[in-house]
Amino acid sequence: MDYVVNPAPLTGGRFAVPGDKSISHRALMLGAIAEGESVVSGFLQGEDCKATLAALRGMGVKIDAPDTTTLAIRGSGMRGLKASAAPLDFGNSGTGMRLFAGLLSGQDFSSRLIGDESLTRRPMARVIEPLTRMGADIDSNGGLPPLTIRGGRALAGIHYALPVASAQVKSAILLAALYANGDTTVIEPAPTRDHTERMLQSLGVALQVDGRRISIRGRQAVKAANIEVPGDLSSAAFVILAGLISPDCEVLLERVGMNPSRSGVIDILREMGASIEVENTGLLGFEPVADLRVRSSPLTAIDVDPSLVSLAIDEFPVLFVAAAAAKGRTRFTGIGELRVKESDRISAMAEGLRQLGIAVDEFEDGADVRGGVLKGGVVESHGDHRVAMSLAVAGTIAASPVRILHTDNVDTSFPGFIDGMRFLGADMTTSRAVPTP
Ligand code: S3P
Fold this sequence. Notes:
By secondary structure, the chain is α/β, with parallel strands linked by helices. It has 12 helices and 25 strands. The protein has helices at 21-33, 47-58, 94-105, 125-133, 167-177, 195-202, 233-245, 264-271, 316-325, 345-355, 385-396, 417-423, and strands at 2-6, 12-15, 35-41, 62-67, 70-76, 88-89, 111-114, 137-141, 144-150, 155-156, 159-161, 180-181, 183-187, 207-210, 213-217, 227-228, 250-257, 275-284, 287-295, 329-332, 359-363, 366-370, 377-380, 402-405, 427-431.
C-alpha cells in the first residue's frame, strides 16, 4: 500500500493517539509470567504487539481480549510458559525479538525466534553477548536472526556495562535476570526508556536504580496487577509536528505518555521554537502522562544536543522533517543507532527529503538538513513505519502531492494514522501499490 498526501494544512482538534508500543509489549510479557490475572487497558493493537500476543498464546498463555484495547492475561507464573509448536514470529519487531531472547533464555524448553525481512537484518549480537555471559545458549545467523535458544540452561547474574544505549538490550538482560541465580547489574552509557524497570517494580519485583546503574536480585516472582497503557508519545510526535507546521492550527493530544526517558522530542522541538504546552499532568499507574496542546509555530534550525538522542531515539525521522520545515541548517549528531532500526533511517530520510527538494548532507552518525520549500514527488519509505509517517507529515506542507511507497508497516505502531490525520484536517488517502514492471 502507498499513501497519497495532497498538500493541506491541519485544521486541528482533539485527538487521542493509540497506546504505547513499548509499554504494551512489556505488559503482555510480564503479565504472562505473573502469578494471577492482569487486565491491560489502552493496549496497542499494532502488528508488533499482536506478534508478542501470538507468541505468548503459542506458549500456552491464556489471554482474552474483551475489546480491542483491553486484554485479560491469566499469568502462568515464572515457570508456566510452554514450548511453542511453531517458531515464534516477531514480524517487524526488534523489541519483540530482543526482549523475548531474554525471557526465553531462562526457560527449560527451546525456542526458535524468526522475523520479517527487515528484522532479519537487525543486529542481535547485542543481546546474545550478555545473555551468553549469563549462561544462555543461543544460535544465530552470524549475529542476525533467526535465533535458536536452547532451554534448560542455568543462568547466573552478571555485572554488565552496556556498549550501546539500548532499552531493548537492558530489558532483555533484566528479564533473563529474573531467572538467574544471584544479582544482575546493568550500567547504561546514556539513559534509555525505563518502562521495564517501572513495570517490574509495580509488579512487586525489587530493583535498585542508582543513576544509570540498575540492579536486580534473581529468582523473584512477578505479581499480577492491572496496567493502564498511556498514549504513545512516539506516535503523537507525527501529529505534533503536523500541527506545528500547519498555519493557524491547534491540536490537543490527550493522555500521552510523558516518561522523562522518552520526552526528548518535546525538548528538541521547543528549542526549535515549538509551542507545546503540557497540561493535566498526572500518573497513569507507574507512568507519567499529560495532555499536549500544540499550536502552529515557526521553527528555527538548531544543533540538536546529542545528550537528548537516547531520549528521543524513535523521533529522529520526524525531527528531520521538522528540520526541513525550519529556517536554517539543523545538525544531527550522535544518531548512528538510527542506521540499525527498521531501516537505515538516516539514509532513508535523507533520500526522501532530497527527493522533495531539501538539501541534506549525510554523515556516518548524523546529517545536516537545510530548511526549504518542499516540493511534491514520489518517495520510498523502505517499509519503515516511522519513515512513512514522517514523509506523510512532510507532504502536508509540500507544494504538490507526495506519494509515499510501501506504507503497510505503519500498522506496526500506529494503526489509524491516516484516519487520525484526516480527522485533524489532512488530505491523505491510501492507494494500492503500483506494481513494478
Ligand atoms: C524500544 C527501545 C528502542 C526503540 C524501540 C522500542 C523498547 O530501541 O527504538 O522502538 O521498547 O525498548 P533501542 O533500545 O534498541 O534503541
